TrEMBL record:
Record-linked CDD domains: GAL4 (cd00067)
Protein name: Regulatory protein
PROSITE patterns: ZN2_CY6_FUNGAL_2
Signal peptide: none
One GO MF term attached to the UniProt entry: DNA-binding transcription factor activity, RNA polymerase II-specific
SUPFAM superfamilies attached to this UniProt entry: Zn2/Cys6 DNA-binding domain (SSF57701)
Superkingdom in the source lineage: Eukaryota
Stretches with biased composition (Low complexity): 71-84
Record domain Zn(2)-C6 fungal-type: where: 11-48
Amino acid sequence: MDEPVRRQLHSCDPCRKGKRRCNAPKTRKDGDFVACYNCKRWKKECTFNWLSSKEEKRRTKPAQSYTSENSATSTSDISSTASTYGVEQPRPSSQWYPVTSNYVNIPTPTDPANFPFEFPLRPQGLFLEKSGELGFSADHSGFFPSDWQIGAATEQSEDAFRELESIFNSSENSIDISEQLQGGYSPFGYFSQGDSNHIGLKSWPTPGFNTPPFTPNFCIASENAASQFARTTMKRNLIRIYHDSMENALSCWLTEHNCPYSDFVSSVLPNDEREEWGPNWSNRMCIRVCRLDRSSSSIRGRALSVEENKTADRVLHLAIMAFASQWTQHAEKGTGLSVPAEISRDERSIREYVWNEARHGLEHSTRIPSFRIIFANIIFSLTQSPLDISQDKGLDQLLDNDCAPAFMETANRQLFTFRCKFVRLVREAHPKMTKSRTESIGAAFMDESERSKRLQVDPILNSPENRNTLGLLFWLGVMFDTLSAAMYQRPLVVSDEDSQITSASPAELDSEQLSLTKTPQTNIIHKKKQDVWGEFFLEPAKLSGTIPRWPCSYEEAAAVLSEATPVKVLLYRRVTQLQTLIYRGADSDAVEEVIQKTFAVYQHWNRTYRRFMLDCVENHDFLPSRIQSWYVILDGHWHLATMLLADTLASIDNGRLGSASEDRIAAGFVSKLRTEHALTVSNLCRASLYGQNPSMQFHFHDSLNEVAFLVEPWTIVLTHSFAKAAYILLQNLDIADGHSVQANSFLSGCEDCIRALQYLGRKSDMAFMLARNLSVSLDLKLAQMS
């Protein structure tokens, strides 16, 4: 053979995709060439051999039969090779439309170097036939291999950490808003790039579903080109949705400044946090979790095997796919909430299959100690499960049958286990001063020197980023565990005692407790300040400085919303504490004490953040798009917490479990609390539904940018909030005068909440069913009142 050719255009497709050196000769006219070295080694069909066979077929064809047989033969060849990769070929007589949907079938990944997000894909979602036939079969066995959780050992799989991290850290996931065109997101921009491995995010105007017929004028020359196009299209689409929803929310909810377990808390905002709040945020948490997993051998006690690495990558991939596939791609804008029946059926089929595959993967990977699998469980617990929409179930029944809390609890148990191991490592790295306090200063310095050596050996203890990532991930699990326990009325996985800051940094606590300069009384005060569920989050604002009001700077608004997030979590925690006291049958004084602590959180919010939230609702159209998405979600979560608090207080007062129950009943406190916040939720829905902010189209994927609350990653929370508000307003119609201003307010508020649920119904069967049931109930109520 000739000298190896390293130029990109003279490498076969498998070598180019795997970034391997291809030794295919420049000229392949000799008959002894079968495949390059890499294709022989990995048992792949070399592209050059495939092209040579096609050229040989063309040379051997009789000239007189070329015009009559060539069309059928070439069509058959392309169809057969395409079918190998699951590519649906267009029929000659059919018309085609470009759409933004990139849902595609995923056959078995045969090349380990292509994983993750490098499966051969079926680009059926790229074009739709005019008849609406997508060609999806009921059998989706080609999506993922049946033995996906047991991967073959290869040299590429050993670099699984770096491969997955590079997927989320690549430039294609850093959305450049200046390059976005108004109107949406198109897969075709990648053809303009010279390097197929670097996919730009320049958008083409996205035609609507009723656009005039469009016939593509390009031809896919090989199955490798077809599969590569489909892979990059689906990868970019799903990661973009994940990026715009999950990572967008986490950039506000989860920062080093509002996390109680961070190493350093400062009033100065670091540059990386400023960037995450800006228009070009990254997939920060997914990247950091991958890096943490790579450095956490000391916590798990061993390194992950090759098979475990591949399984962790696949599980995280499946969870992100299931999460991103919730959003429908073809809902009509404006008043039309429907999706064409054929498209809806096909999208639902894929959504159900991917959801089941993700669930299967998570259930079979629970024994693998991996932070990637933990993060996958968290992502999947936020994903709405497909339901039988023909059934008629209420909110309580739907919540009781939801399996999402099980995956959240699995993630939190694993996180808590890792946290305990981390604390033990820290304590071992910082041995206690067991000798007398009169020990020489030189010995103390020797202990510190020994500690420094141990820190240098352990990558997770020596790296501030890894320690902070572990703290952020643990705080994320604690936050979600708190909200989930309050909503589903389930016990907490991580107790109040186990989620304290002192358990996060025992070495620092030990040194402070043993310090000669501190008195026992000082230590008690210090512990009190470190109580996460005490007054820790009720201290004066760290970032905003003063009580905020809109208008203000973008950075100030983002800081306020980020700072308010833990206060919201604290109110949910108080609700769970009250629910626990009811279960345990605590005495009335203990119950009343927790109620007063809960009111302290409620009053702190009203003094500090309530006016800013009302400003945001009143000026919804003038807010930056990311501020819109953050405040709507945060405000919806807060009002759900207050309505859950009202339900808990109703249970306490009805059972006379609190010492002040009689006073609250006489004042009608619970009813007033419910009605006030239900109306506030309806105002929030109205501002989002009828607001006009075109900047949402530039910052978010088409499936998320019509209304601000569609960006919500945890759909069940807003679904619960909107549905509960609608039920409260519907019940208030019974006691209100049918023609009064108050009745009209209840009616319009209920309609707005139902309308918001219909929008959420695009990605949630639960929201769809609740909107339908509430709409029927409202019609019956109006018929009775007329």
